[in-house]
Design a protein that fits this description.
- Helix content is 43%, strand content 17%.
- The chain contains ten helices and seven strands.
- The longest helix has 22 residues.
- The radius of gyration is 18 Å and the shape is globular.
- The N terminus is likely disordered.
- One of its GO terms (biological process) is methylation.
- It comes from Agrobacterium pusense.
- This is Class I SAM-dependent methyltransferase.
Length: 274
């Protein structure tokens, strides 16, 4: 883990992260686990959001690192007034086109999730999916999100540890590789460009959670920021079961074994919800 952040040095890292995800934009929605591929999965996501954030009822929601707008659309489904922020204009172009084609009034704009430039106490809800593990400075980011949330506002983080693997995961990966090598099972179709220079690995080695974003550590940093209460939810099986139907059998099993979680954190104070 990186204990100190050197901003001059990490400006280039942020640029690399932006370029990497911009390069993933064209095929991003083709991957199970990114876009929603069934009503079963959509309902499972809705249930998770309602569990931690409640119904939208016109509340303002900021979707950070919104990408092509998958989570923004789920929030819009539930009645939130959604703004999606991402620093990849390539992702946002796809997000705007998707919202237009579906008749959604979601606003998308370019911005840095680690320095949003949003007004103080302007959002009822902030939501992120698969952002925290990429943060260069989560302490500064969490402080920024705390600032932007209204008193009583809620932050919902959906993320995972994509570095460490349990012995069960290693066993399933080994079994899958063996069966694929024998031609007994088909490989899952990759929906990302080739990465001959191992850009992803290079980026991962330099972010804060280079050793894996564990739920307990994320929750601890949120409490240090001032969020309270902070709750960890690892009951994401309904989402994983729905996603698994679009994977090979073994990859579907693997998805359920990974350390994936939601963390809900509340900014102390009286909520603006009536």
């Amino acid at each position: 883990m990186i204990d100190t952040i050197e901003y001059g040095k990490n400006d280039s890292l942020r640029d690399e992260i932006k370029a990497y995800w911009s390069g993933r934009a064209a095929t991003f929605d083709l991957s199970p686990g990114h876009e929603i591929f069934s009503e079963e999965e959509r309902e499972a996501w809705h249930a998770l959001i309602l569990k931690h954030l409640g119904p939208g009822e016109g509340l303002s929601a900021l979707d950070l690192a919104s990408g092509t707008g998958v989570i923004s659309h789920l929030m819009d489904d539930l009645g939130f007034q959604v703004t999606g922020m991402d620093w990849s204009e390539t992702m946002l172009a796809l997000a705007r086109e998707k919202a237009k084609s579906r008749g959604r009034s979601i606003r998308f704009f370019v911005g840095d999730a680690e320095n949003t430039m949003e007004p103080d106490e302007s959002a009822d809800v902030i939501i992120t999916r698969h952002l925290v593990w990429t943060l260069v400075d989560p302490r500064a980011s969490f402080a920024e999100w705390f600032r932007v949330l209204k008193p009583g506002g809620r932050l919902l983080i959906v993320d995972g540890d994509f570095v460490n693997t349990s012995w069960r995961e290693k066993l399933v990966k080994k079994l899958a590789a063996g069966l694929e090598g024998l031609g007994l099972v088909k490989q899952d179709q990759p929906h990302k460009p080739a990465d001959p220079e191992n850009t992803f690995t290079s980026i991962l080695s330099r972010v804060y959670f280079s050793n894996g974003a564990r739920a307990g550590e994320v929750a601890a940093l949120l409490r240090q920021t001032g969020f309270e209460p902070v709750a960890i939810d690892q009951e994401l099986q309904a989402i994983h079961r729905a996603q698994a139907k679009n994977f090979s059998l073994l990859k579907g099993i693997l998805r359920g074994l990974q350390h994936r979680y939601a963390v809900c954190a509340v900014k102390p104070g009286i909520t603006g919800k009536t």
